[in-house]
């Protein structure tokens, strides 16, 4: 199974790509940086900034706090 070979950050990128392929306008993430390194976290936030600029609404939960990002 391909998911077994991918790092956590790569698995997240695949899931984001799936959502975009389906033309999703809302993306919900549950503690998306919990298992990421600092470098992987920065890359994830670059992707999030691009999605926000592309009119995608993003909800992220951290320690029971919900954050909303939209353009």
Key traits:
71 residues; alpha+beta; 3 strands; 42% helix; globular
Rounded mean pLDDT is 80
* Overall morphology: globular
Largest sheet: 3 strands, mixed
Helix-residue proportion = 40-55%
Round the Cα radius of gyration to an integer and report it. 12 Å
Low confidence ranges = none
Order of helices and strands: HEHEE
- What is the tally of helical segments? 2
Strand content: 15-25%
Structural class: alpha+beta
> Biggest sheet, strands in spatial order?
1-2-3
Number of domains: 1
Element layout with pairings:
Blueprint (H helix, E strand, L loop, with lengths): L7 H14 L4 E5 L7 H16 L3 E6 L2 E5 L2
Parallel strand pairs: 1-2
Antiparallel strand pairs: 2-3
Describe what you observe in this structure.
The chain is α+β, with helices and mostly antiparallel strands and 71 residues long. The chain has one domain. Helices cover 42% and strands 23% of the residues. It is built from two helices and three strands. The protein has helices at 8-21, 38-53, and strands at residues 26-30, 57-62, 65-69. It has a three-stranded mixed β-sheet, with helices on one face. The mean pLDDT is 80.
Short description:
By secondary structure, the protein is α+β, with helices and mostly antiparallel strands.
